[in-house]
Amino acid sequence: MRALVALAALMAASVAIPARASAAAGATCRDVHIPVSFTPGGAKNQRIYGELCTPAGSRPRVIQVLVHGTTYDHNYWDLPGFGGRYSYVKHTVARGYAALAIDRIGVGRSSHPLSALTTVDTDADTLHQVVQAVRSSAFPGGAYPHVVLVGHSFGTLLSELELSEHHDADGIIATGWLAGLTKPVPTAGLVARSYSALLDPAFAGRRFDPGYLTTRPGTRAFFYQAGTYDPAVLAEDERLKQTYTAGELATFVRPLVLDRPIERITGPVLLVLGEHDVFFCGLTGVDCSTSERVMRSQAPHWKVASSLQVYVQKGAGHDIGLSYNNTAGFAAEDTWLTAEFPLG
């Protein structure tokens, strides 16, 4: 254990902290760049970018590490503009919690290794190194005693993999993801809406290989439920869209079938998803009409979790944080955090 702490401290000691203006009102925010190794035991020559926000004038003991889904980056948790209405960061920091919204490896302002080598395993391992960093005394402001992973969609799968393997976070909020395989038709639909990011004008001049993929222009309404989102949000979503890799696409099913990570997670768990999540709910999927019905379908999978709660965000599609009624999901997360990780 002492060796692990020392390693984490050494890794976090080189975190760069450029000053910048706060993105979330009432918060102190800064950019952090966390050195990580792309291979176990290898040189820490890659970087994970994060937006670290804390309540102005205070230093909480609990930090949430926010892990976005496919074709998103940290902006999913802190969408610019709209008076902060679509910022989970602003919401949770106002309630006294710290938040670190990262760009996963291969995304946004983080390093972009070869796409074929950027898989669920490298994603989960670099996320583990981020958790080590925030637990280190060398992290900006010092170590955080309590770490909660908050994932969305593919980011939830990666958070589950990290937590099941290392048990170094204290709990998880799992949004936009349920146990078992995703519905095959919508998953194939996402792939059909994708192409090499090098063909997309949004990524002109970017230096990564053709195995970095993104959604084709005009297709991102796929992540939403009709009538439950602001068209201006969809336009901003299109402007900010990001990449995923052929390596991730080729490997994401394996942990679901072989590893079954959630069966090894021991801490408290909150599941949050939209009633009309295209990947999991409805025909050929789970009945998501009520939280109780989702609980019945999911409880058998969480074999050793200390507690399991479910919240269904009524009417919403996959992108619950960007829907009109996102504050309903935020409130459910508030209630769970207050009960499981009180700030006092």
UniProtKB/TrEMBL annotation:
Name of one Pfam family that matches: Abhydrolase_6
Keyword terms: Hydrolase, Signal
Gene source species: Actinoallomurus bryophytorum
InterPro entries to which the protein is assigned, alphabetical: AB_hydrolase_1 (IPR000073), AB_hydrolase_fold (IPR029058), AB_hydrolase_sf (IPR050266)
Molecular-function GO term, any one: hydrolase activity
Signal peptide: 1-21
Superkingdom as given in the UniProt entry: Bacteria
A cellular-component GO term for this protein: membrane
Protein name as catalogued: Alpha-beta hydrolase superfamily lysophospholipase
Domain AB hydrolase-1 intervals: 65-322
